[in-house]
Design a protein that fits this description.
It holds the Pfam family FAA_hydrolase. The longest helix has 10 residues. Strands 1, 2, 3, 4, 5, 6, 7, 8, 10, 11, 13 and 16 form a 12-stranded mixed beta sheet that branches. This protein has a 4-stranded antiparallel beta sheet with strand order 15-14-17-18, with no helix packed on it. Strands 9-12 form a two-stranded antiparallel sheet. With about 280 residues, it is mostly beta strands. Strand 14 and strand 15 form a beta hairpin. Helices cover about 15% and strands about 35% of the residues.
């Protein structure tokens, strides 16, 4: 099933998306209330609010509630790390992203005035559906997946004064990183780690293309890595890293007016314009 967060009558609400019918069946209550039961048994459905709206009549929001934890794993595709001139680490690494850095699936990317090297990163995003703590199996806590574009400021990233790398400045910029368009539940993707095509285009030109099976550490292992350090709650999300082909490899950074489309097979497409 597809689960979206939409603006209905000026109020953010969750709903089940039926693309064939072109409707959204609204869900009663916040994600944290019904996601654990759904994650445990995908044959059930979330509690419905008894109201259906046309999909075209609502604005799809980023599928993350305010207050949720937003994390990102880095250095997870070997070719990407080689393209940046870095050495592949021996274990995963992750960092926190501010909620304010996120935008919806069709919102504008607001070009930050403090960078001249704005980059793109198509990613598979994991959505947590059940409380996950140290020692838990990561896959059991996954509600589903969506598409992400972890937009990054490279001149700020590699200009860190203390450690040589400033992840906060590079990855935490307001209104830059797209996520959505909805959550596709884990049962729709199949057992085990997903093997899905990722593609990113800029003004129609393919810049990135790979498969999620190229991840050195799969989504379940990355969730376990994070949960061993910080417990996860329903609604938390994890960007799993990006493959090769980013702008930092050839210097073709994003420019104002360009249209960026990030697609993950079976999950949908983000379409964001740089403003």
């Amino acid at each position: 099933m597809k689960i979206a967060r939409a603006l209905v009558d000026h109020t953010p609400m969750w709903g089940l998306v039926d693309t064939d019918r072109g409707v959204v069946d609204l869900i009663a209550g916040p994600l944290r209330a019904w996601a654990p039961a759904l994650t445990a048994d995908f044959s059930s459905t979330p509690p419905l609010a008894g109201r259906t709206v046309d999909l075209e009549s609502v604005s799809l929001l980023l599928p993350v509630d305010p207050g949720s934890k937003v994390l990102a794993a880095g250095a997870t595709y070997a070719k990407h790390i080689a393209g940046l001139g870095l050495k592949m680490p021996e274990k995963p690494a992750a960092f926190l992203k501010p909620y304010e850095s996120l935008i919806g699936p069709y919102d504008d990317i607001i070009y930050p005035p403090i960078t001249e090297q704005l980059d793109y990163e198509v990613e598979l995003v994991v959505v947590v559906g059940a409380p996950t703590r140290r020692g838990d199996a990561g896959a059991a806590g996954i509600l589903g997946y969506c598409v992400g574009n972890d937009v990054s400021a490279r001149d700020l990233q590699f200009g860190g004064a203390v450690t040589g790398m400033d992840i906060f400045s590079a990855k935490g910029l307001d209104d830059t990183s797209g996520i959505g368009p909805w959550i596709v539940t884990r049962d729709e993707i199949g057992a085990g780690d997903p093997d899905l095509a990722l593609t990113l285009t800029v003004d129609g030109e393919v810049r990135q293309h790979d498969r999620t099976s190229s991840l050195v550490w799969g989504p379940a292992e990355l969730i376990e890595y994070v949960a061993a350090r910080s417990r996860l709650s329903p609604g938390d999300v994890l960007f799993t890293g990006t493959p090769a082909g980013v702008a930092h490899e050839d210097g073709r950074y994003l420019q104002k007016g360009q249209v960026v489309e990030a697609t993950v097979e079976g999950l949908g497409t983000l379409r964001n314009t740089v403003r």
